[in-house]
Design goal:
By secondary structure, the protein is α/β, with parallel strands linked by helices. The chain has one domain: Rossmann fold (3-Layer(aba) Sandwich). Helices cover 32% and strands 16% of the residues. β2, α2 and β3 form a beta-alpha-beta unit. α1 packs across α2. Bound molecules: 2-amino-2-deoxy-6-O-phosphono-alpha-D-glucopyranose. 2-amino-2-deoxy-6-O-phosphono-alpha-D-glucopyranose binds next to α5. 2-amino-2-deoxy-6-O-phosphono-alpha-D-glucopyranose (GLP) binds next to α5.
């Protein structure tokens, strides 16, 4: 696992955006350029700075999305697209609507209003497989270490499915729902931990003091379904991009190790 520690949130986002751009560009110049680059994407406040930077590159003509297919991680069950807290709305508002060459037919987001959630999730897995899997999955992390909506004790082999949200997560996410945890949907559709770890590369953003325990559990703890992000320790292409604020619970030797081994990757 790589852990790339940047000084602050802005630098973490620029590093992550540059990394994603470099992977898309390498793909488009490589032997597989005739198939699309398949990019997994998250919502949440953590990726907003990455989206801004990717949009800037795209609008400056430095990065094209014309050969990119995207799959989002998750969606609240029961929220229509037009709801300003749906992840469909978030993704268009913060990212897709600002790109000059993203093809709408290449955007995949689970349908939170489906009448048949099981079928919706099975079809999502099939569609990912039809592209040969995901090349790079970017994600965030919950304060309890969840990736996508895979709460603690979700199987590390889980696939896309319906998830019950914990009270903790509903309280954390209530800041977007008028500070009312009851207003936060109690269920979501989410890719599984196994769906994420099947990707060729995984890039997880971890920033801020409130994520310090989650970062330590992801990097230094044992692989455990209690911290679903720890599954990335078994992945051969996992990168954690984090800021200094999130490093507060790492042991000093871990912190120094990654600064040393990643030297030159400091923006
Ligand atoms: C939600 C999303 C996760 C995201 C998490 C953290 O629970 N389902 O994918 O990682 O929020 O969000 P934030 O980046 O706002 O802390």
């Amino acid at each position: 696992m790589r852990v790339v520690i940047q000084e602050d949130y802005g630098k973490m986002c620029r590093w992550a955006a540059c990394y994603i751009a470099s992977r898309i560009q390498a793909h488009n110049e490589g032997p597989e350029k005739d198939r699309p680059f398949v990019l997994g994407l998250p919502t949440g406040s953590s990726p907003i700075g990455v989206y801004k930077e990717l949009v800037r590159m795209n609008r400056a003509g430095e990065l094209s999305f014309s050969n990119v297919v995207t799959f989002n991680m998750d969606e609240y069950l029961g929220l229509p697209r037009e709801h300003d807290q749906s992840y469909w709305y978030f993704m268009h508002d913060n990212f897709f609507d600002h790109l000059v060459d993203m093809k709408p037919e290449n955007i995949n987001i689970l349908n939170g209003m489906t009448e048949d959630p099981e079928a919706e999730c099975a079809a999502y897995e099939r569609k990912i497989a039809s592209y040969g899997g995901i090349d790079l999955f970017m994600g965030g992390i919950g304060v309890d270490g969840h990736i996508a909506f895979n709460e603690p004790f979700t199987s590390l082999c889980s696939r896309t499915g319906v998830r019950n949200l914990t009270t903790d997560t509903r309280i954390v996410n209530s800041r977007f729902f008028g500070n009312d945890p009851e207003a936060v949907p109690s269920q979501a559709l989410s890719v599984g931990v196994g769906t994420v770890t099947d990707s060729k590369e995984v890039l997880i953003l971890i920033n801020g003091h409130n994520k310090a325990r989650a970062l330590a559990a992801t990097v230094e703890g044992g692989v455990s379904q209690k911290w679903t992000c720890s599954a990335l320790q078994m992945h051969n292409g996992a990168i954690i991009a984090c800021d200094e604020a999130a490093c507060g619970e790492l042991t000093v030797d871990t912190y120094k190790y990654f600064l040393d081994i990643e030297r030159g990757e400091r923006l």
